[in-house]
## 1
Amino acid sequence: MACHAKNGCEAAGAGDCHTQTGRGEAPERQGPVSDNGAGLSDDMDIRKTKSLGLRLVTTLAEHQLQGKLELDRTNGTEFRIRFRETAHKRT
């Protein structure tokens, strides 16, 4: 996955982006997405941002998947989406 200039990789030099999906504690799923760029500022509230991308991530995680969005700013930025796996019947 390529880093986009807006996420801070360009400012910090070449950066790496990582994405992974897998199972957490049953029946939970999780999907971290991270990069080692400059990261988001500590005062940025991802739920009140004007950024379309962050609004889409928040809407997907919390509303469509009815999950939880976690943010770690320790080493660049890592978003972790946790949601419960559900069984859907086809009609």
Note: The radius of gyration is 15 Å.
## 2
Amino acid sequence: MDFKLFGFHQTARRQIKPGLYAGLGYHLDLFSGIKDTGAQAGEQTPFQAYGVGTKGSSTSSGIPWTCSWNDETIRSMRHAASTPA
């Protein structure tokens, strides 16, 4: 496989309660110059059999939602430096 890819993935999250975050985002992937080098050499490839997005370019776009849990405490460098070991 040979292709060029431009990807943009961005997500914004908000704290719902201590340690719990949720949010929405946008994902965009633009594939161009798609070439199945195996098929060009005469091989039957899974990509060739799939058929979708095999005409030289393909676009994937979507709105993801995220949910994450983080229960770790992160100290600032100043606080960590002033805390005796």
Note: The beta strands are 2-17, 20-35, 57-62, 65-69.
